[in-house]
What does this fold into?
Amino acid sequence: MKTAAAYIRVSDERQDEYSPDSQLKLINEYAKKNGYYVPQELVFYDDGISAKTAKKRPEFNRMIAFAKEKSSPFEAILVWKFSRFARNQEESIVYKNILRKKGVQVISISEPIIDSPFGELIERIIEWMDEYYLINLSAEVKRGMLEKASRGEAMCAPAIGYDLVGKKYIPNEQAVHVRQIFNDYLNGMTLRQIAQKHAAAGLKTRRGNPIESRGVQYILYNPVYIGKIRWSTGDKTFAKSRNFDDPSILTVDGEHEPLIDMDTWNAVQEKLQKKKQMYGKYQRPDQPCEWMLKGIMKCGTCGASLVRSQENYIQCHQYSKGRDCTVSHCISIKKLDEIIIEALQDCIRTCNFNIEQREEPHDVIDYTALIKREQAKLERAKEAYLAGIDTVEEYKANKNAVTKAIAAIEKQRTENTAKKVDLKEFSKKVEEVLQTVTSSTATTQAKNEALRSILSRITFHKPQNSFTLFFYT
It folds into this structure.
């Protein structure tokens, strides 16, 4: 009698899928009729796990590890259906080949396969159908969830300030914290200060942890607080990147009570947008500001930021670390402040501003990459025509479509970069900033934020002892 392992998997609790006990019963019946013995220690069971990938199936991996031993403890793996073993055809083929080299056969007790090349073909077709089922099921689930989201139904666990009752978000005792967080931000508190204040007052996340700066930021961006439902129609990257301007995000009216009025919401969003413009992707606006031009000064040799190296001096960050810069850009903070103030006064006097359109790294549209992508399509269309796959008419149609797409991208790039600026009005704005910068009562933080509102960066060219101011509107 041959020894066999039994692999049992259920992905969820739906009634149309055999239970683990039923699967094991049928496997044991098959084993007795066909000369196999299945010991209890060789029954492997993954509960509530999808077969999309083997990485997340611990018992499956343990079974494969047993099979790969020098002397495999079983000669076959019995499953109710091939879909229990895998729904990913590529993985199924890989693991079956591994098992075949060890003399282990995968047998579906409800899908008998003829022992012949034709039988292998039938097995591949079954595997393909299983994978198609998984892909189709995923699409149907996404479609159903999108339909629910478009109706404004609650789609996920409640945000801070709400409980989920039935299918509706209901305000709870934390709602007072949410309202105060919006007010605190408008009153000038930083994200860190707000987080510390409300953490001390007992505000916790759903996981029971004290609220942090990142959580405060998420609250301020979350439209659920104005009665909206937000749902991503794309992949999972939104949850990681938190790109709240992603065009794949669906925002619709919800069925729940809002906690924030529209005036407050709009004021907060406007302030957040200004902060987003003033600070780069990796800069932290909540960090203490020790000198007026912090985060604005750049090395003219390598482009790195100039950072404080001593009490009263700054230096190129890369140079101070001994990395990619070989030119020292050391300068005293006091002298630098005087030079930049004088440079701003000169810009106002001459009305000569080096203005560029400011785009942060995480918001830039790479038009060049988009055009290259279209050009690659054109190249593939040409190859298809030369290979005789497409007719000349099809090639012309594809070429026209790509040409139009490239023209549209070029037009969009031109519209987004061509920005007319009223220099007289801009000069007044710079003058207001200069008043703040030269004020004896303004804090270093206030001076820094004022400068960030007009300057994208200042490049210091130490060998020439010159400075280039880059303004943005």
Summary: Residues 359-363 have pLDDT under 50 and may be disordered. The CA atoms of residues 80 and 110 lie 6 Å apart.
